[in-house]
C-alpha cells in the first residue's frame, strides 16, 4: 500500500512533511499481496525458510494543525495490493479519534480529519487499520497500527511562566553585574523549524539594565546606581520566537529590581550646635539631653557610636541602642558658681565601615553640645569637707576653746551660716558651739582615761532657710596630762624558803599607769621610808619599768614570823611626778632540800590521842544539842500535819476509805465497824429525841440551808454564790499552805451538792445513829423507785419495836 495525494492547498506542505518518511517507506523489500504470500507459504510447507512479507504498504501520516478550511482535511490513503479496484474490500480504522476526528472512506481507504487539531494539545494519534472482505467481513490482512502526527505551525507566543519577577542588586555595583535570570517558554515544537527559538530584549528600563538575548540574564548597564536616589526599578522584558525574525510571536513580563544598601553615606548631625540646661544640684548620671546623627543608609549600616572629643571631664555620652541617640549625662558634680556654661564636642562614628568606599570620605561627624548650668540654693559647705580633727588638754577648764569649725554658703548671695551640735552625738553636753562663729568650747571637765576621743556632729544651716543644712564630723582628741599615780600591777605575793641565801631574787614587780605620756612611761622604784631600816629584803630597780626583790640575810624562821610586808614606793616621770606606795606580801615557807616549797603555814602541834574530861563533856553536850534539835523538828512536823488533817476533815471527798465487806444491809450494824465510815466528821450524840439531828454534824452548806428554814432559806442559799466562792477559797489556801504538795501547779476538783437539794445526803456515812429521829417521810413523794428506800428510813411503830 502506498499513499496517494490529491492536489489542493495543503499538498505542498504535506509533501514536504512526507519527504523524511520515504526512506522508511521503501527501506523494506517490495511487497507482494498478502494473498500471494499466503499461497506460496502454503505450497512450500513449513520447511521453507523464505521470509513471509506482508501485503501492506505503510507510511506515517501528517496533518497540519489549526486547519481552518470548510471541508474535511485529507490526511492520507491506506491501500492493500490485493485491492484490484473491484470494490470487494472494505477499509476500517480504530483507535484514538477514529470515527470522530478521523474518518475513512471504506471503499477507497482515504482518511480525512474532520476537526481542527492543535499540536500543543495532542501531538500524535495512534490508530489501527483493517482490510476486510466486503461480503464476508473477514479480515484479509492482519490488523496493523499506524500514527498520524500533527504538524506544528508557529501559533504559540513565548510565555514567562514564573513572572512577574523580583530581583535585587547592591547599589554602586559595576557595569555588567548579574542581577537575575528570566525564562520564557514556547509551546511550539522545538524540533521543527524556529517556532520555539526565543530571544530576549528590554522594552522599558534599558538605560539602567540590559538582558542577554539568548540566556535571559539581566545585568546592570550603569555603575552609579544609588539606593538613596532610587531604591527600585521596573523593567519590561520581551521574549520573541522565530529567533526574533519578522512574523515571530512575542510575550513580555515585568521585572522589579530592588537596589540594596551599602554603607556609602557617613553619619551627619542635622545641627552643628545643640543647647541644653541642667541644674547644678542634679545627681551624677542625670541625662542632660539627647542628640542624634542621621544616616542615609539603612539597616546595620546606620549603626553608629558616639564619643566625646572635648569636655569629657564633667560629662559622658552613651548610645541608646534602640533609637541610635547620643545621651549626654553628668559625670561629675556641676557648680554654677565655678562655671556656668560648658561646651561638649560629640562625635558620631559608623560602626560598620565598608573599606570599598573609604575613599568617599570620612565616615564620622561632630557637633557641639552647649550645657548651661542653672543656680539653686545650696546648703553650706564645711571646710575641710571631709571633717575636722581637734585636740584639747584633759585638764582644760570649762569654757576653754577647743577649736573652730568653718562653713560658708556656696551661693552667690553668701547668706550667713548658723552652727549647732547634734546632741545625739553629745548627749552629755560635754561641748558647746557658738552659733555664729562656730567656736567649740568645753561644757564639762574632761577625763582622758574615761574617753580619749569624742566624735561629735556639727550642723550648719542658712540663717534665712533652715532647710538648707549640712553636717560635718568633728573628732576631738583628749591630750593626756599626768594626773594618775602609778600603781603596782597586782597585789603581789612572794614566797621564799626558810633556808634562802642572801641576795637571792624572790620576785619581780611591775606597775601600771592610766596616763599615756607622749614620751612613754618611765618609773622609779624604791622602798618606802618606813621600810628604810628593813634588814630582811632589798629592792633593785632594773630600769625597764620593773624591779626585783632580793633577800638581804640568810635563814628565816617561819615559827617566829611567817609573813613580811614590804612597802614599795613607785614614782613616774611626770610632769608633774606622781607616786604611790604598794605593799608586797612575802611568805616564809618550808622547803625540801632541793628548794621546792612544801608548806607556808606555821608548824602545828600534834594533838594527843587521849582526850581530857573537859573535851569529853563538850562532845557530849554537842551530841545532846543535836538530839534535841531533831526531836523538835519532828514535833513541829507532826503538829503541822495534825493541823492540816483537822482542816481537811470537813470535806469527805478528800478522804476516801475503801472496804469490801458484805453485810446484812442497812440495818446490819454489827457486820462491820461503822465508826470507820463516820470518823470524817464528829457526830455528837443527840441530846433529845425531839430536837432532831445536830446541825453541827452536817457540812456547812447543809447547815446554811437548815438554818435558813423553809423554802425561803433554801432559795436564799441557792442564790448565794458566795458560799461556793468561800469554799473554793478555803481549799486553795489549804493547798498553798501544804508543804507536802509538789512545787508546781496542780489541778484539783471539789464538788458538793449545794443547798438546793431537799434530800440532803443519802449516804449512810451521815446517818447519826440507828435511833435517829430525822424525818425521811418525803422519800415517799419521790415515786415508786424510791419506795424501798423510803421504807428503810420510815420511822418505826412503837408497838413493833416493843414486840
From TrEMBL:
GO CC terms in record = adherens junction; catenin complex
A Pfam family of this chain: CADH_Y-type_LIR
Its GO biological process annotations read: adherens junction organization; calcium-dependent cell-cell adhesion via plasma membrane cell adhesion molecules; cell migration; cell morphogenesis; cell-cell adhesion mediated by cadherin; cell-cell junction assembly; homophilic cell adhesion via plasma membrane adhesion molecules; morphogenesis of an epithelium
Which first-to-last residue range defines the signal peptide?
1-27
Q: How does it sit in the membrane?
A: Single-pass type I membrane protein
High-level lineage: Eukaryota, Metazoa, Chordata, Craniata, Vertebrata
Give the UniProt subcellular location, in the record's own words. Cell membrane
User: What does the function comment of this entry state?
Assistant: Cadherins are calcium-dependent cell adhesion proteins. They preferentially interact with themselves in a homophilic manner in connecting cells; cadherins may thus contribute to the sorting of heterogeneous cell types. PB-cadherins may have a role in the morphological organization of pituitary gland and brain tissues.
Instruction: List, alphabetically, the InterPro entries matched.
Output: Cadherin (IPR039808), Cadherin-like_dom (IPR002126), Cadherin-like_sf (IPR015919), Cadherin_CS (IPR020894), Cadherin_Y-type_LIR (IPR000233), Catenin-bd_sf (IPR027397)
TM annotation in the entry? 615-636
Q: Which UniProt keywords apply?
A: Calcium, Cell adhesion, Cell membrane, Glycoprotein, Membrane, Metal-binding, Repeat, Signal, Transmembrane, Transmembrane helix
Start and end residues of each Cadherin domain:
80-160, 161-269, 270-382, 384-488, 488-605
Output the Gene Ontology terms for molecular function. Answer: beta-catenin binding; cadherin binding; calcium ion binding
Q: Identify this protein by name.
A: Cadherin-22
